[in-house]
Amino acid sequence: MFDSKLEVNKIIDFIRDYFNKNNLYGVVIGISGGKDSAVSAGLFCEALGASRVIGVTMPCHSKDEDREDAKLVSDKYGFKLINMDITSTFDSLVNEAEKLDDFVDSEDANINLKPRLRMSTLYYIAQMYSKVYNKTFIVCGNGNKSEEFVGYFTKGGDSVSDIKLLSDLFVDEVIEIGKEIEVPDKVLFKTPSDGLSGQSDEDKLGFSYADVKKVVLGEEIDSNIREMIMKKHNANSHKFNIPTYMKRGE
User: Fold this and answer.
1) Where are the alpha helices (DSSP H) in 134-182?
2) Tens of pLDDT along 235-247?
3) How many Å is the maximal CA-CA distance in the chain?
4) Is residue 137 helix, strand or coil?
5) Cα pseudo-dihedral 152, 157, 160, 161, rounded to 10
6) pTM above the 0.90 mark?
7) Segment (H or E) for 29
8) Half-sphere exposure of 57 (CA within 13 A, CB side)
9) CA angle at residue 53 from 48 to 57, to 5 degrees?
10) Do 156 and 119 form a contact (C-beta atoms < 8 A)?
């Protein structure tokens, strides 16, 4: 039985212990308007205090609703929320690529460019605020266990961070923690999506996060769905480990 209250306290202790041991001060979090970033932000506010949490919205041909929902989260927990519109940066890079003789319009390349630009933005902001406060800010990643098992993240984008709170929590467990720390319902129960492609996560994947949990835990599930999930897991295995040549002795 998942004990959300106990898990919240453990995560708060984890944050405080890591920050104290490494002489860190604050955290920068991309606030998407979804439950994962909201839960991360709420937990960090509980652990460090809202004054040490910086939320960043990074619209890029995005829905206005996502930014509005991000503000619901910052209003709830009281952390600073800044907006970095990266639309023109995205457009500029794509426009440069279009000048190449062998340019081919790629939807996947465009979708994955956005989280890569967003992660660069978060690290820029973290270093900027480290200078402002003369204390170290780090970047939080918001991926959960369900997403990470099937590789539903962008290599070099939302896979990059300095600390993660949700990587060992399934989607339903994230929701239970969200209830415990009172994430606004509109955000907590919002249909999961990347905010980039116009599709829900489960539409893109072709299976549910509940199904992913069953596969990870070895529970009974339709064999076709299990095959789809494992195929996605195996196809994305390259995202988990970067092959590195190691020099060996004669």
Assistant:
1) 145-149, 171-180
2) 999 998 888 999 9
3) 62
4) strand
5) -100
6) yes
7) strand 26-30
8) 24
9) 155
10) yes
First vs last Cα of the chain: how many Å apart? 54
Contacts of 243 (CB under 8 A, 6+ apart): none
Three-state SS letters, 101-135 = CCCCCCHHHHHHHHHHHHHHHHHHHHHHHHHHHCC
Q: How many Å apart are CA 248 and CA 43, to the nearest integer?
A: 45
- Could you give the CA distance from residue 191 to residue 66 in angstroms, rounded to a whole number? 12
User: Looking at domain 4-199, which of 1.10.357.20, 3.90.1170.10, 3.40.190.10, 3.40.50.620 is its CATH number?
Assistant: 3.40.50.620
Element (H, E) at 229: helix 223-235
Q: Write out pLDDT tens, residues 12-37.
A: 999 999 999 999 999 999 999 999 99
**Pairwise pLDDT comparison (194 vs 39), residue with the higher score:** 39
Find tokens 């994947």 and name the residue: 205
Cα(145)–Cα(88) distance, rounded to whole angstroms? 33
User: What are the extents of the domains in the chain?
Assistant: 4-199
* Residue indicated by tokens 């480290």: 130
> What is the helix (H) or strand (E) element at residue 219, kind and residue range?
none
Task: For residue 50, give every residue at least 6 positions away whose Cβ sits within 8 Å of its Cβ, in sequence order, or none.
Answer: 77, 78, 79, 80
User: Residue 220 is which amino acid?
Assistant: E
Enumerate the β-bridge partners of residue 138: 27
